[in-house]
Amino acid sequence: MEKITKNQHFVPRCLLKNFTSEDDVVNIYDSSRDKLRNPTSIDRVLAENYFYDKDNTVENFLAEFIEGPASKVFKLFRGESSEPLDNNAQIDLLRFIVVQLSRTPSALSTSLKTIDNLMNEVISQLGKLNNINEELINNIEFKLDDPKDILRIQTMESVLQCPLILDLEWKFLINDTDTEYVIADHPVVNYNWYLRNIEAMDIAGIAKRGIQIFLPLSNRITLCLYDKQVYKVGEKGTHYTLIKDVKDIHLLNELQFRNRDSYIVFTCREMANYVKTSCNRIPNNSLYIHRFDSNLSISKNETRSIIAQWRAPYVFSHWLSFSKVKKKHSKRAICNVDRQPYIVLAHRQKIEELRQRGKAL
Length: 361
Fold this sequence. Notes:
This protein is of the alpha+beta class. It is built from ten helices and 15 strands.
């Protein structure tokens, strides 16, 4: 009988290993409990028993197709491999990134909140249309038989998002300061500085013009994927930029602090006070704010309901000193469009086709 994995990581060990100390442990701060743990093995952090499933369907999929291939890439950044970062390796890392966006407790919480808001509003509107007592309506509660079904679905489907970021440019941000990079329990950060002030519902999408995606690969290296049509990042013609200004490191770490659900992992114990102070100052899950609006209109001939949910970004007072919006975009009216609309359309059509095929099986 195949062995069942009980302790399932939502941030994989192959990435966390890049944040271990010489003693092969990490430090972890639990901001929801204001608790600094003793140095801990990566086997015991950012994991839960049966987080995905008890039959290991999702766990095995992640291990074989996502974490296994990506782990070879992560070895490059701790000096355990000399394999080139070729096209195949880049695709493996991009798959890891899009899946990591959907597989964490924070990602599940966001999805469940969206469903709850939607269903509560639907119930409320149906009650009003049918003149049902408001107290009775308020006592009706929508519940999923197994909320983890949402996690399983979005985790498995997320790998199909990879084509939407194939066009992004790569830049490795090398930390040349005394302050290390930290990593959160929801570590992949997507943020659109170019569209930050636009009043629109879709600016958080990874297919949008002006997106930047950040993932700490170690306490000294962060990967930045960015829209090269909008931004100039570091020196032209290089795949890395040396970060000497600690303010930039603080801002990159703030992305992790704001994106965390509860936990921050770091290498050196001397960083503990910095991490704790930053978490006390910066709220968790604050990089985006969940927005909700609805409208119910009733006429003699028609009843129409519009329910909208979206994420509004936290607006930073300044951005990374090495990342600039190009003049051709900074001097024009901001344009909220998809980078590759034909790719987005084809992708949506393919996803719908796969879903219909799944229903037919």
